Amino acid sequence: MCRNAPKQRQILRHEADVLCLIGWKLAVSGAETRLVMQTIERICAHLRINPPEVILTRSFIWLEISKGPYSACAQRKIQNFGINMANVSEISLLCRSFLQGRMSGLAELRQSVEAVPSFGYNKAALCLIEAAAGLCFAYLNGGDLKVCLSALAGGLVLMAVRFCLIRQGFLAAFAFIAAAFMGCTTTMLASRFALGCDGAEMRLAIMATTLLLVPGYPYMNGFLDVFKGYLETGAFRLMHSIVLTISAAIGLLGAFWFMGAI
User: Fold this and answer.
1) Which residues contact 9 (CB under 8 A, 6 or more apart)?
2) Mapping DSSP to helix (H, G, I), strand (E, B) and coil, where does residue 64 land?
3) Which helix (H) or strand (E) holds 262?
4) pLDDT digits (tens, 9 = 90+) for 31-83
5) In degrees rounded to 5, what are phi and psi of residue 58?
6) Under 8 Å CB-to-CB from 185, ≥6 apart: which residues?
7) Roughly what angle, to the nearest 10 degrees, separates helices 199-210 and 172-189?
8) How far apart are CA 71 and CA 13, in angstroms?
């Protein structure tokens, strides 16, 4: 037994690393906490490992597993919770294939999970899509062509500023403030001076532009985590979402002050 101890510890460390990798990949792709925990627990049960101890926060994931007298820990840093449902679905399918015995072992599962590309969405296309969403919102709420064009112009500027600042490494809260200020200012200038909108039309265009910064997905995941019993992670997600919402509101107030000044 003593001779096999180093090998058993090495195998357990490898299993902990793979489990931590899977949980980290799911978390940074936007999976809710319950899915992360259930995936890790099912793989542990399949490997005949004792129920794991897992801590998932806004900043890191940590887990400890044990088998017999041996235990191993692993952790990874989380930069941010992104939104990539394609990765979540692909990793979940890979884990399901492993549990159904369609993989040769844990090494193949690790290789497959690591091969899942952490691609980013095309920022230019996202700017156009988000701006078009603002235009559609204005139209569905009774806006005419002038209101829709104002919302489109503001949405393009808002998303371009947001993506540019985040790519340059600025904090998300600051990016939201600057994006809300620039986007809403553009909307107000376009609607008031270029297209001649009245007060009600201007308010509708501003509302359609500002709604592009509402962090709906983080709010949804935060509430799901709280309702399902993962209070710590849910509180982190909700607090982050509230900070982003307040930042957008600060930018909007700054745009109103600027327009009042000129």
Assistant:
1) 70, 72
2) strand
3) none
4) 888 899 999 999 999 988 888 888 888 788 999 988 878 888 999 988 777 77
5) -70, -20
6) 255, 258, 259
7) 150
8) 8
